[in-house]
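Batch job 17 of 40 flagged for manual review because the log was empty.
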Amino acid sequence: MNKRIILLCTAAMLLAGCGTEIKENKAAEITARSETTAVTEETPAETETTTETSAPGHESSTETIEETESKAPEITEETDEVPAILESAEDLNLYDIDGMNANFAFTYGEEEFYAYYTEDNWKIVDSYKIENQADMEIICQALADIHPIHGSDGESYRTAEDMAYEWEQHNIAYKILPDDTPWKQNVKDVDINPADQGKSFYQMYKERMGSDNG
């Protein structure tokens, strides 16, 4: 009987020891899992930190682009704003050079310019030097009063405004074309005629390049 009690007590002690080991092992496993989960949860946080760090750089680039775009119109306006110096056609001192009613000269600023008329065409030499649109219209009206130019329909006559538009297109082409381009020498003078009414400098350029290739 005593032996049986001793055996039962020994078995109970062994089971208690096993239970402790199981609990300790289980606790260690839970701790290990908790640490793994903590590491896993920390990884996105680090990624978010990296994203937040790169964000200011992106915003800075965007702001730079926006600032450039916002300043562009101001630069354009300052560049294109050339003051007018003419009040009327009388300021041009326009006169017939040789009495042939075809070769004319006029004064703009302190420089003398020449305008030559052939059938339905006014050629203004070195027209690229004159950039103010209002002054262009005064000059075009003065020339049209002497010899009007037909419109592209062959019946109407061109207005000073659309003659000045063609002049402006030549000026634009002169500014953007490289100095070594042969066509740049052609656009330094404007030829106001029916064919080019309402056309942009790009349309005129394409037509001339097409005719040269043809």
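Reviewer: the log was empty due to a logging misconfiguration, but the result itself is present. The CA atoms of residues 204 and 210 lie 10 Å apart. Unflagging and moving on to job 18.
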